[in-house]
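yo, chitinase is done. seq:
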Amino acid sequence: MDFISRENYLTSKDTLDAARISSNDVDTAANNKWIVCYHTNWSQYRNTPGKFYPEDIDGSLCTHLIYSFSKMCKDSSGWTMCPYEWNDMDESWAEGMYTRFNNKKVEQPHLKTLLAVGGWNHGSTDFTAMLDEGWDAVRTWAKNSIQYCLDTGFDGLDLDWEYPAKETVDVSPQKDYERFQRMVEIVREEVNRVPGFLLTAAVGIGVDKIYHGPDGENPSYNVKNLSDNLDMINLMAYDIHGHWEDKTGHHAPAHNKMTDTRLDYTDSLEWIVENWLVQGADPQKLALGLAAYGRSFKLEDPNNNGYMAPVKLNYAGLGSGTAGQYTGEGGFLSYYEICDKLLRNGWRSIYDNEIEAPYAYGEGDWVGYDNPTSIVYKAKMAEHYGLGGIMWWAIDLDDFTGSFCGQGKYPLMTAAKNYWHNGYTTTTGKPISTQSTSTSGTGSTPTSSPGGDCVSGQFYPHPELCDHYYLCDNGGNVDFTCPPGTYWDTANNYCDFANTIDCCNGQRPCNQ
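structure:
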């Protein structure tokens, strides 16, 4: 697999430098630092107090709200968009969910709203069918979809095709890789005819999504193409691990767990961001996805409850943890449901310093999740890489009532907003008790710099490992890893190809 091309890598460095000077020409809060918040239209069906309506959204915590989802359909004019739920559209007797969602802009005039089309359950069939009809059909869809968004009160369109050229709930043929690129270009051309209208996309983050496979399989995306044509790329930086595997693992680790036998350098947010940059993404057009939920497992042995613990598989070959009381999906728990387990069911929480995220176990189940501490760490990562935004899936999964976690309303989103827009890490309420793991090797635990106190915001080489480097944060160093095949260039403060860096075959200090 052609994992990294030097041309793309050097291009990404130039792009990163330029992007810090000129970002998207889009009005946003806090110096163009986006906070994208997805709302799910099925959260209205949950049991109280998990039931969630647009009126429950705290618009002050977001800059951009995205309504999930609409679907592809055809009418007499050709391909267009249609509502998913029976109450999305207005009726004579009641406002629809679209209108109630867009009413948040009256309360918070800074907000922009977008309508997402697609989603996991939507699949690829209709996208592929439209592409089969040719570029005129795509242009008709683009025009109709933009008008549909405008007619229903939205300021933009979010593309959520999961995934071009991949098999998921159905199959997208290999040729959809090239065709999706042209589709995005056509939609961009039509969007440019409507001043201020936004075009974004939610994208998968696996290695197969941005690199050609070992047998020539196409990826889903041409990263440079997306970066050139979208206002923001929402990285779905979660579901790295989950109940489809036979061992426990965190769905969104900031860094690799070095003892994880599944390790292939794709298992962390660090890898995700660095490789999108390597492939030519403008960092100011990347929003790092944050999850207000956890992925849970059923333990094979409740007494063996650490990271990589064996999972008890069901008849379908899944190791799903018990469904949440309100979300009702096996292998999935909202943050407020996790708090409920910790505070009322006696679950134990462990903060893993190596991956910079917590996990918890109890009642025979195990769940990886994020708390305010790990969320702030990830916001710092986004800042470190110069990204243009952070993104939430989903706003209805945080403790929006403030009745579960003892941390106030929206504790995760509040912690992220406080850091991302205001630069501070104060959280409300009493933190849920966790025990920290000890780490060894090349984990991400803050550590002292070799020369004593470090200067906050400065980079330092790792004293032993050439493919690692430190970022000083409040007097302690945070360990980052370069993409595979690259070493840290201390003179220029970026990762460059190993054969261009004199580093004694990858080990410091050099033995003379």
